[in-house]
Fold this sequence. Notes:
- By secondary structure, the chain is an alpha/beta fold.
- The protein has a single domain, classed as Undecaprenyl pyrophosphate synthetase, CATH 3.40.1180.10.
- It has helices spanning about 25-30, 35-55, 75-95, 115-125, 140-160, 170-175, 220-230, 240-245, and strands at about 15-20, 60-65, 100-105, 130-140, 185-190, 210.
- It has a 6-stranded parallel beta sheet with strand order 3-4-2-1-5-6, sandwiched between helices.
- One 3-methylbut-3-enyl trihydrogen diphosphate binds near residues 21 and 66.
Amino acid sequence: xxxxxxxNTDKIPSHIAIIMDGNGRWAKGKGKFRIFxxxxxxxxxxxxxxxxxxxxxxFLTLYAFSTENWSRPAAEVMALMELLVSTIRKETKTxxxxxIKLESIGNMDDxxxxxxxxxxxxxxxxxxxxxxxxxxxxxxxxxxxxxxATKLIAQKVKNGELAIDEINDKTIDENLSTKNFPHPxxxxxxxxxxxxxxxxxxxxxxxxxxxxxxxxxxxxxxDLYQAIINFQQRExxxxxxxxxxxx
Length: 247
Ligand code: IPE
Ligand code: IPE
Ligand code: MG
């Protein structure tokens, strides 16, 4: 029996979020520059998004560049932005073929003009696709998003559109850049690091976390299936007792 056949098709997570980590180490291990790792990470994105679309995942959020990543050496940041532009340009065809809709979260104003432009074109071109929504987190950090949400909420209170006592979970949800997407049921991080690195802090409150030592460019569809099978074996209790959730 193949790994894919072991997946329970009635329990596919509707939203998977991935911290695609380990590109630099992957390249270093091959005696190459870090950017070579980033370039090879694109293939993993293609494979994993296709696999998600095939098995019925509806949303895939990919952490591609964090707010903190701006502090990397300028040459690496520039190379990553160039790679982003060329990848979006080249991959739009594949997104269309696979019926995948592109979205983004993060502070787009920070990105070079060219990136913003390419991103907008691809988002516009793919907006009617329905099989899977792929959300690129670019110049994104959860704290940035929460600060933004706080400002939006404060403004509504100031304008008299919202009473302080009315602020609840839903208010926060509706003011984050992730407002149009359900919270991820499963979060995967590659490269053996066991941390969140400022990714979706609010939305991951009850997500199942899955860590693998595989470096991102080596992560393939079988690894994705493995993560989903592992997820399906877990009991999600949301604060309740085991008896409550199984009865
Ligand atoms: C993840 O790989 C990609 C980005 C953060 C842009 P890294 O570049 O962090 O690779 P490592 O962690 O240094 O190996
Ligand atoms: C997280 O990876 C960000 C992305 C994958 C885009 P990092 O490599 O930047 O995270 P840290 O620095 O190891 O926490
Ligand atoms: Mg890293």
